[in-house]
Amino acid sequence: MNVLTEPAREGRSRWRVIRDGVGAATGVVLGVAPHVLHHIGLLAGTALISGASGNALFYVVGLILSVPMLRRLYRRFPTPWAPAVAVGVFTALFSLSAFVIGPAVSGSGADPAPTDPSPSHTGDEHGH
Q1: Per-residue pLDDT tens listing for the chain (128 residues)
Q2: Angle at 86 between CA 84 and CA 88, to 5 degrees
Q3: Is 4 helix (H, G, I), strand (E, B) or coil?
Q4: Cβ atoms within 10 A of the Cβ of 73, count?
Q5: Cβ distance 71 to 27 under 8 Å?
Q6: Would you kindly state where each structural domain of the chain is located, as residue ranges?
Q7: What is the pTM assigned to this prediction?
Q8: Helix axes 81-96, 51-65, angle to 10 degrees
Q9: Number of C-alpha atoms within 13 angstroms, CB side, residue 52?
Q10: How many Å apart are CA 109 and CA 103, to the nearest integer?
């Protein structure tokens, strides 16, 4: 190896490491953003991001934020199947989270009927 080309190679390698680190950090933030954003429901108002409209909104946001990853998949495997499989996995996991795990954790499913049919009112109309 030539001694004169060694520092140039090291400099390029350092910039590549920095670039890849920034790209990875950005990917983590963009990947976690849809999950973290659903926690702002109390702050943003439940009318905007709860129920079917909120789930649809965050599904679309998740898909938009995954476009860079989908493009890299397509470049690595030059077939539309790789991005399609990734979108399918994202859809399946998002659906599992939104429609099964979320309601189970929050307890927003159907409430069971009361098991004690005893009357709640005893005595006359003034509660004596």
Answers
A1: 555 555 555 566 888 888 888 888 887 887 777 666 666 655 555 555 667 777 888 888 888 888 888 898 899 988 899 999 999 999 998 888 888 877 777 765 555 555 555 555 555 555 55
A2: 70
A3: coil
A4: 20
A5: no
A6: 7-105
A7: 0.51
A8: 150
A9: 0
A10: 6
CA angle 113, 116, 103 (to 5 degrees): 30
Query: Which residues, in sequence order, are CB contacts of 66 under 8 Å at separation 6+?
Result: 30, 31, 86, 87, 90
Q: Can you give the length of the chain in residues?
A: 128
Rounded Cα distance between 95 and 65, Å, is 17
DSSP secondary structure string, 46-60? HHHHSHHHHHHHHHH
- In 3D space, the residue among 54, 31, 60 whose CA is nearest the CA of residue 41 turns out to be 54
